[in-house]
Amino acid sequence: MSGGRRLRVCYLVPGHGLLSTVGPSRNVLSLARALRAHAEVTLAFRYRLEDRPVEGIEVIEIEPERRPREVVDDSAMRGMGVVEFARYLAKLRRFVRDSRGRFDVLLEKSWLLSGHLSAYGLARGIPGVPVENVVPSAGRHEGAGLLKRLRVEAGRMLAGPSLRRVPVVLAETDQLARAIVEVWGVRPERVAVVPLGVDRSLFRPIDQSEARLRLGIPPDRTVLLYAGVLDETHRLDGPIEALAALRPAGIELHVLGDGPRRRLYEEKASTAGGTVILHGRVPHETVPTWIAAADLCLAPYEPRAFATGDLGYATMKVPEYLSVGRAVAGSPSERMRTLLLDGELGFLLDFGTETWRRFLAAPPTREALAAMGRAALARPQPSWDDTARGYLAACERALAATGRAA
Fold first, then answer.
1. Which residue segments constitute the domains of the chain, with CATH numbers given?
2. pTM value?
3. Could you tell me how far CA 14 lies from the centroid of its own chain?
4. Chain-centroid distance, C-alpha 379
5. 222-239: b or e for each residue (b if 16 or more CB lie within 10 Å)?
6. Which residue in 276, 235, 239 sits closest to 255, CA to CA?
7. Predicted local distance difference test score (pLDDT) of residue 29
């Protein structure tokens, strides 16, 4: 900022509770830690779901009184009732109004009304930058009932006018940028693509034998791994059902994470003869060790979860898998083809049961999978420092559009 003052940025995360083991929180925390080298950074979540301090970063709770007694999937995933949502939206708008003079720029994490708070703040003298990671589709919530699907569709329609009013929208991938233009009608020159980074100090090569010894996994097993939320967007039914049907000797699937589909997966795994092990949430610091212990990591995505029918996510898990040096099986999509170099670093597989029955009936050798992992290490992923510089440029662009110098 002019006069030597550092830029004051607030990253507003509507709907989500702060829980460092889940993707949205990890994304925001990693970016904030990197961005604070360039700016004063504050985070604003709905509430905290853990008491761990965030070193050097102020965390504001919008609705601390609504914090659930138990750590459960937060409201951004479960949804809110209409009255609860209206009350929460009013508090968010009040927070934005009160932010003028306190912050220079608001970053707005994608949510049901993406862009609304950025446009609302812009009209009141504080520019906002929406950060989009998906153009939502009601297909993601097919099991949640008609009302939920209608809310998602209504939110998507309401988001468009807001996103078209702001000077810059951040997208995490080229595919998502095109979807933002196509679905929401945002002018292409207003969409900036900034990839998510990888924490290279954490996700780095680790010896597989050492990792297995630490975790108690036999050295001769072929280990499949999934790490992430268990929801409608990430469907593991195919691999679990195939393992339950085949019970192949020496192959195991380890699942890290929690979510609304966990109970269903536990029921399916109960018939798999021990070939599927669900571990629930694990400390984030241990995830690289689990990845290192694996031979093949899974990235299943449900196409109906995306408005264009194609994966638009940046998908943090895949660059993290690759950065540890592991091959990946990912759902076919343009984004996955880019990440896996058209199959050089893994496999493009749909996650249907029959596909996985065929794959597991004649799986690749562990040596072939290890070679793919070594090839992945030769192509480093972007760091969070790279991402922070892109976000800072977007903040400066938003300020310039309002006639204020950064």
1. 2-197+384-401 (3.40.50.2000), 208-377 (3.40.50.2000)
2. 0.83
3. 15
4. 21
5. bbbbbbbbbbbbbbbbbb
6. 276
7. 94
